[in-house]
Amino acid sequence: MPSPSSEAHRKAARDQVARCAVLTISDTRTPATDSGGDVIAGALTDVGHELVARTIVRDEPTAIDTQVRAWLIDPAIQVVLTTGGTGIARRDTTIEVVEKLIERPIPGFGELFRMLSYEEVGAAAMLSRAVGGLAGNAVVFCMPGSPNAVRLAMDRLIIPELPHLLWERGR
Fold it and tell me: How far apart are CA 163 and CA 11, in angstroms?
């Protein structure tokens, strides 16, 4: 059960509208096949948040770094959400790039994501390196490329807390 103070914070934050950017990291996805990005965009706009930018880059460290850094310095963007490149394959480099940019990790995001994933996929959940944190003035979340995993992260973790995160960040 949430504490009275967390409920008070959520109440104070409930009108926060997030200005978001969505980055799909994939060597194979196109705008027509970007189902993970579609899930993120839909989840955000369905509850009234604003999609400011959306793009796809290859799973190349320089491409990921360049795009995320550009969004982190853009005052119109408060939240950066990535999908893809969080596994353990040699080509999965999202986490190595983004962790260097995160100044204040939110370890609970990855921990809770893997716990919830375990309920759905069993021990394979340990292969996800999903992370969240604060970088510059933005909140950043890195999710797997699977649309089901993205839906889980968005519906159970990010969407319910996004206004609260923005409110806390602005304090």
Answer: 9
